[in-house]
Design a protein that fits this description.
Blueprint (H helix, E strand, L loop, with lengths): L1 E5 L4 H13 L4 E6 L19 E5 L5 H7 L5 E4 L6 H6 L2 H20 L4 E7 L23 H20 L3 E6 L1 E3 L8 H10 L4 E4 L5 E6 H14 L5 E4 L4 E3 H11 L7 E4 L14 H7 L7 H14 L1 H9 L2 H9 L8
Helix pairs in contact: 1-7, 2-4, 4-5, 6-8
This protein binds nicotinamide-adenine-dinucleotide and thymidine-5'-diphosphate.
The site of thymidine-5'-diphosphate (TYD) has 12 residues, from helix 6 and strand 8.
Amino acid sequence: MKMLVTGGAGFIGSNFIRFILTKYPHYAVINFDKLTYAGNLENLRDVEHHPNYSFVKGDILNTELLIHVMKDVDVVAHFAAETHVDRSILGADAFVQTNVIGTYSVMEAARQTKVKRFHHISTDEVFGSLGPDGYFTEDTPYDPRSPYSAAKAASDHLVRAYYHTHGLPATISNCTNNYGPYMFPEKMMPLFITNLLEGKKVPLYGDGLNVRDWIHVDDHNRAVDLIIHEGKVGETYCISAREEKTNREVTDLVLQKMGFGPDMIEYVEDRKGHDRRYAIRPYKLMAELGWKPAISFDQGLSQMIEWYKNNPEWWKRVRSGEYQNYYAKQYGQKTGITI
Ligand code: NAD
Ligand code: TYD
């Protein structure tokens, strides 16, 4: 089995590659990544010499390169995207380019090279914002409200269109907020943990009562693996560990686990158009594929905090934007093919 992972140097993609190479050491895994500010090959330092792993530095907008790399590829797991909502509010260009046109480009290459499976990784944010009640499921109509979620929604529609029009053997998953190791410290959880490790306050938006539904990245990746291997072509699967929390609840837990009090919270101006609540009921995934989450929020958060405590070089370099130079110096060309 030969698998191409786009965006494999990012947070979820790098954890996915590690998971796949551990579970299926005989699979050949190609990591195709542009190495934007969010892509970091240090995330894969422990597997970079695995005989079945290779890296190709490339932009998913480059269809020709993708066609070249996808020869003999059986499965494409498409993670590459611009992912930070706040950045999409500051400027949507890269979001439209990578998430919409980039997804079109990856699918076009997959169609032309006749891959057997194309899995598109998406988000619950495409469904919009919930009030205090109700949940998103596979049948929820799309209602994206940020440039990030609108671009992801457009990509989901394109994937369905390619399945219906061209018979692309595609599946889609919409997952809730992930957390875990190697998460870029611009998103709330790693930003707060690394701020506290540096003795800085944590900036909580608005009233702190927006709700997110948290899942450990390993539980997300186990679901993606299951969908790729056992999911039905043409289907969408919603993924959630059903761990709904207000941002204030998450912040209090982080503070408590790290030995700080609420005086370290700084309430700051709210995000523009801040979605109030996301929550998924993943009954289809549970009933049809037998998936269930294995890591509780409490346990996963403790593990995450320990990981950031034990890996200060990683997040300090990432926070200072130095890692690309660092990578070039440390690893040079050692990570396999680079076209
Ligand atoms: P991330 O920002 O950490 O990583 C994105 C990766 O994509 C980086 O390695 C980056 O270099 C690469 N990339 C960006 N533009 C590219 C381009 N044009 N060509 C090639 N590579 C490019 O993102 P993440 O949090 O790991 O998210 C991965 C996927 O999961 C995304 O599709 C995202 O929408 C989805 N998702 C994320 C979450 C979450 O909580 N983080 C939740 C649900 C779904
Ligand atoms: P984030 O990690 O950016 O993920 P998303 O917007 O995709 O859900 O934000 C998670 C929640 O935390 C969201 O409600 C916004 C809030 N937040 C803060 O309160 N302060 C921050 O500094 C950040 C980055 C986010």
